[in-house]
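Table S2 (continued). Query chain:
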Amino acid sequence: MQPGGKPDPGESPAETLVRELHEELGVRVRTEDLGPLGSFRAAAANEPDHVVVAEVFEVDLAGQEPRAAAEIAELRWVDAADAGDLEVAPLAREYFLGG
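Corresponding output:
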């Protein structure tokens, strides 16, 4: 799963990601650092019969090293070649790791 989460009341998708990246990975970015990639829909990974709608961004971490924090138990960089043997969220597998 990618880092992120549900927005707090009145929070934009970019503001949500900035907050979640800090809470979940300990990295600090600004909303103006985010490049929007679009809105994507897929089956929710942990909620049967639900669909997740995600606003997805790219960001340069500017040399910061992410670390697992909050509810994140494990952190690993994954590309399409690595994903074959892993349980990967449907959103990532469908749109970002080549299906």
